Amino acid sequence: MSGPTPNAGAPGHVPVLLEPILRQLAPVPGATVADLTAGRGGHAEALARAVGPSGRVLLMDLDPGNLAFAADRVRATGVGVVEAVHGSFAVVEFALARLGWKADAVLADLGFASNQMDDPRRGFSFQGEGPLDMRLDPTRGEPASELLARLTERELADAIFRLGEDPFARRIARAIVDRRGRDQLRTTADLVAAVRAAYGPRAHQSRMHPATRTFMALRILVNDELGALQALLDAVARGAAARGAGWLATDARVGIISFHSLEDRLVKHAFAGLEDGGLAARLSRKPVEADDAEAAANPRSRSAKFRAVRMGAETSRDD
Ligand SMILES: C[S@@+](CC[C@H](N)C(=O)[O-])C[C@H]1O[C@@H](n2cnc3c(N)ncnc32)[C@H](O)[C@@H]1O
User: pLDDT digits over 130-169, tens only?
Assistant: First the structure.
């Protein structure tokens, strides 16, 4: 489990929806931008170039390796100031307050980066064998192995159904509990075997790998991804209500890319609530999605949905 991360020197991740995001977040020279999910720095580098030598960039990420990689990439643009904060975007208000900054543009690109998925030692992937870890922040928190050992069959079934929307959630939970009782649930390959056992012959009937939904559900659970997103949306609401006196500038723009219907629903409702309350306006009525060319070039972009708001009630929309 030691040794360098595969492709440690390469980004290993293609940023999604880059052009429409730059258009909607509209970073200008001298602005302060916050990339709350720095990842491999693709979006952050473009934002940094737009704000230039008089601009400032806050980078956050749960993954210290990705944060350091992104920070190097952003510093190389010659942007004025770069601050890198290891931690969850749930605490972005405190990170900015400590710096004494207000954000003009904020981006969160939810979930995992491709380099994390592609490293079997992180345990995110059902392809290749690795430990049952799945933590975005490998320095703290409960790995999937502990969660799988602790949860009841009912709790596992509920999580796989709610977060993974897998119709075989109950059977999968039963297979997991059965295998852990026999000490046969140690690696990602063991978890795949449990899911395959639950699916039986149906495992070969769908184009999607049968373990896709289970792995997604566990990743979301291990990292409390919906809880963190809700905390961020609450912070955005406080920033909007503060009308420039909080962590967001008076006319700040905030954009979120989600890859899961539950995440997109939370973002959609939160942004619609801000608009209804006269605190912000959506920058487009519908979410921005990948066009055919991007979807063909980057399969990951196919499930991406980007929604953005601008603080203040008045705005002009893209659509
Ligand atoms: C989709 S990738 C971001 C990719 C990035 N936009 C780029 O262009 O390279 C998501 C990143 O967000 C991080 N992440 C996920 N949830 C987070 C959270 N609650 N707080 C901070 N970072 C988080 C992950 O570790 C991962 O590096």
Answer: 999 999 999 999 999 999 999 999 999 999 999 999 999 9
Q: What is the pLDDT of residue 50?
A: 98
Predicted pLDDT at 205 = 80
H helix count then E strand count, the chain: 13, 7
Report the pLDDT value the prediction gives residue 244, as an integer from 0 to 100: 96
Instruction: Tell the residue nearest (CA) to atom 24 of ligand 1.
Output: 112
Superfamily of domain 18-111+225-311: Vaccinia Virus protein VP39 (3.40.50.150)
Residue with tokens 């921005």: 288
Q: Is the pLDDT of residue 317 over 80?
A: no
Cα 40 from Cα 75, distance rounded (Å): 13
Atom of ligand 1 nearest to the CA of 88: 20
Q: How does residue 8 score in pLDDT terms, banded at 50, 70 and 90?
A: low
What's the average model confidence in pLDDT over 13-17? 96
Class for the domain spanning 129-222: mainly alpha
Ranges of H-type helices in 166-222? 169-181, 188-199, 212-222
Q: Which two tokens stand for residue 115?
A: 């380099």
Gap from CA of 218 to ligand 1 centroid (Å): 17
Task: Kindly list the domain boundaries of the chain, sorted by start residue.
Answer: 18-111+225-311, 129-222
Residue written as tokens 């795949």? Answer: 192
Strand partners, 248: 103
Measured from CB, residues less than 6 Å from any atom of ligand 1 are 13, 15, 36-37, 39-43, 60-63, 66, 88-89, 109, 111-113, 136, 228
User: How many angstroms is it from 109 CA to the middle of ligand 1?
Assistant: 6
H or E, element range at 84: strand 81-86
pLDDT at 313 over 90: no
